[in-house]
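Ligand: zinc ion. Inputs:
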Amino acid sequence: MFIRFRYISALSVRATVLLTPLFAALFALPAQALVILQYHHVDATTPAVTSVSPDTFREHMTLLEEMDMTVVNLEDAMQQLLTGESLPERAVAITFDDAYLSVYENAWPELKKRNWSFTMFTSTDPVDKKYKDMMNWDQIREIQSGGAVIANHTRTHPYLLETPAGEDRKDWWQHEINGAEERIREETGQSTRMFAYPYGEYSLEMAAWLEDQGYIAFGQQSGAAGASSHPQIVPRFPASGVYANIETLKTKLESLAFNIQPSEVRDPVLNDNPPELTITLTVNDFRPDQLQCYGAGVGELEIEKDIQGDDDQKIEVTMQQDTAIKAGRGRYNCTAPSLSQPGRYYWYSQLWVNTDVSNR
Ligand SMILES: [Zn+2]
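Predicted complex:
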């Protein structure tokens, strides 16, 4: 395992040596970070990996209050973030995928009583087919009138990287994604063109198609969203299963967005395994020597540095884990502590998808 640094900038090298609070003050940008939480079931009896219990969900909501987080409307906040308008300090958005009945029964009362906005990414076919653990359209309209945004999560919740045999890929996306948008509009009058990828699985081609179609799209790779986030591959923090832990959730709620351009996001479908990842980060409020990167399930990736002089403030970081990713999905996560806001971390994640694994 290794990470290779290449400093593209003499300034950053000098700054790394000086590392004064003055430096931090000069280069710290306003904290334009939006933390987006992602839930599925809010139920003690559903599969643990995609669930939080009603008690745990209540604890999470209490934590948001204790931490003085501002719960924002996701649609408005994304607009503000991507156009460079100011977001509230400690902005957090709450999202649910799939429209489970348990959200209506166990999460909605907690959200309603606090008057908090949230977004529900809805797969429309299971609702249309009246599956018993799904909300129905009346319930969906009820939460909508209470401030929920009803957004798009396809019609049938497929693995979007696996186009059915004989189908044209883009025709299929059109059917799954624009079809769901139309069903939501018919039932709720709402069409926000916000989309969440089922299983968090995207491709760069799909992201480009979604951009063409006017969507903002959300994954399940972790990290705070920032002004330079890829608008069709916006990160969210899963908060179910092992990620429901209150201590690690605190760190995530305080996370900040690295300044990293959309073009740095790599296609997640594994060609070489283990994959090598090179990303360029702007160094504006962290020490490059405090950057740490991790492979999901393998821990910290070893660091190598290659320092070069120039006159910018960017570093190029290359990492690769030793062993192949065997799970259906893997991630490389990078974090670095903020200089200007002690205790807070910059956070970035790249998804990998192993399409050889069929039930991911
Ligand atoms: Zn889903």
